[in-house]
Amino acid sequence: MKSTTKTHRRTRWLKTLHQWHWMSSALSLVGLILFAATGITLNNAAWFESKPTVITRQADLPGEILQILAPASTSAKKAALPAQAEAWLDSQLGIHINGRTAEFSSDEVYVSLPEPGGDAWLAIDRASGEVTYERSRRGWIAYLNDLHKGRNTGVIWSWFIDIFAAACLIFGLSGLLLLKLHSKNRISTWPMVGLGLFVPFVLLLLFSH
């Protein structure tokens, strides 16, 4: 009777672990491929160097919008652009400022617009209303590399990375428990796990100075 109960409990535990394992692997599969591929591109950046593509645009801010900008100040000041000014700039330049902070000085308004795989900025001359916008892109590999690092990707992508990391932890820990449960029938299990731990440790010890 005890043996039957133990077998039943083990079977139920195995079924639960397999369910956790396949669900977490399904959730993290695309992310694992992305992060593994970009791990190679980041580790061998010299192989994937590209020349940035630069786009420059200019416009003249209407007088009524120029007047609603924050008052001129002799000292630098940071604040969001007024909604009307942001909407005009977005429509005229084909961009998305999304409430980013602008730096106000007595003669200029400057907005930094960094993005994954590139950079951008715009400057408004407060006397003439002249707007200069510049955007540089370093290509798709740079874009994916910045996704890997979470660079200039925003809050939503940061949440995705956290959820993806949690799914990977469940995938790894459930896999470890499954290894333990099957190890009696697979004598190479723990030597292989030990090798996976030993090799990076030795490489760090000998070659990471």
Automatic annotation (TrEMBL):
Membrane-spanning residues: 156-178, 190-208
Superkingdom of this protein's organism: Bacteria
Name of the protein: PepSY-associated transmembrane protein
Organism in which the protein naturally occurs: Eoetvoesiella caeni
InterPro entries: PepSY_TM-like_2 (IPR032307)
Alphabetically ordered keywords of this record: Membrane, Transmembrane, Transmembrane helix
A Pfam family annotated for this UniProt entry: PepSY_TM_like_2
